[in-house]
């Protein structure tokens, strides 16, 4: 399954800068539909799972995310697009939650499913993804879906990148298997924001059904 239109892909290529803690100007920021006559980008070696690939699942909306290694256990809200074309981010609130971008594949479908959360939430302090950068290859991620299944992913790579050099193709490009991307802000602070993004790449290793 591909998750965004060609128009959204064009936006992603030309406006790949992440603008807020967890948000990004990518016209939706998920996997892209490639233009006719082009080949999908190859999967970077760092994002190839060590375990054998698992069959893709059908669509079912994710409702919860668990990342045991960093103590994350959060409900998932659905995120769409803001008026300026950037992906929405979860609200700044005392009870911070992560958000799944609803135009990306659901976790377990073929393609990169995209989940975003804050590293800090203003006066409320730490956000859901405050320790995201501590994840390491081999760590487990569980996504619980509305139909009762709980696909499990294994972290394959964790990158901290400058927002000005965001790897759009590596993060949002088409892949031929179910993968997961967790995204937040990180690195040095600049005013009310951060200069970098933390990106976790993970691959499906159990269907959880």
Q: Roughly what is the average pLDDT, rounded to an integer?
A: 80
Query: How are the strands of the biggest sheet laid out side by side?
Result: 1-2-3-4-7-8-6-5
What quaternary form is this? single chain
What structural class results from the helix and strand content?
mainly beta
> What percentage of amino acids are in beta strands?
25-35%
Number of domains: 1
Q: What is the class in the CATH system?
A: Mainly Beta
CATH domain topology: Sortase, Chain: A
* Spatial extent as radius of gyration: 15 Å
User: Which residues sit in consecutive blocks of at least 5 with pLDDT less than 50?
Assistant: 1-20, 27-47
Say which CATH homologous superfamily is assigned: Sortase
How many separate helices?
A: 2
CATH architecture: Beta Barrel
Distance between the termini: 20 Å
Give the biggest sheet: 8 strands, mixed, barrel
Query: Could you state the order of secondary-structure elements as H and E?
Result: HEEEEEEHEE
Helical content class: under 10%
Q: How many strands?
A: 8
Write a compact overview of the structure shown.
This protein has a single domain, classed as Sortase (Sortase, Chain: A, Beta Barrel), CATH 2.40.260. Helices cover 7% and strands 33% of the residues. It contains two helices and eight strands.
Sum up the structure in keywords.
Sortase, Chain: A, 33% strand, mainly beta, 8-stranded mixed beta barrel, 8 strands, 7% helix, 209 residues
Mind explaining what this structure looks like?
With 209 residues, this protein is mainly beta. The protein has a single domain (6-35, 60-206), classed as Sortase (Sortase, Chain: A), CATH 2.40.260.10. 7% of the residues lie in helices and 33% in strands. The protein contains 2 helices and 8 strands; from the N terminus they run αββββββαββ. It has helices at residues 6-14, 168-172, and strands at 62-67, 72-79, 98-101, 111-116, 140-145, 152-162, 178-190, 193-206. It has an 8-stranded mixed barrel. A hairpin with a 4-residue loop joins β1 and β2.
């Amino acid at each position: 399954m591909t998750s965004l239109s060609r128009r959204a892909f064009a936006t992603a290529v030309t406006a790949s800068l992440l603008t807020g803690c967890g948000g990004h100007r990518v016209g939706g920021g998920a996997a892209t539909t490639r233009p006719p006559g082009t080949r999908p980008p190859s999967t970077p070696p760092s994002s190839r799972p060590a375990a054998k690939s698992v069959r893709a699942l059908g669509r079912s909306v994710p409702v919860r995310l668990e990342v045991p290694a960093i103590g994350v256990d959060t409900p998932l809200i659905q995120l769409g697009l803001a008026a300026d074309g950037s992906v929405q981010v979860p609200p700044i609130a005392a009870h911070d939650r992560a958000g799944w971008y609803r135009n990306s594949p659901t976790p377990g479908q073929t393609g990169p499913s995209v989940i975003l959360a804050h590293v800090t939430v203003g006066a409320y302090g730490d956000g859901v993804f405050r320790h995201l950068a501590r994840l390491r290859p081999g760590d487990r991620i569980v996504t619980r879906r509305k139909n009762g299944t709980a696909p499990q992913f294994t972290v394959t790579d964790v990158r901290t990148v400058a927002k000005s050099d965001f790897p759009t193709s590596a993060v949002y490009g088409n892949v031929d298997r179910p993968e997961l991307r967790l995204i937040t802000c990180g690195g040095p602070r600049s005013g009310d924001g951060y200069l970098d993004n933390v990106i976790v790449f993970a691959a499906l290793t159990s269907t959880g059904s």
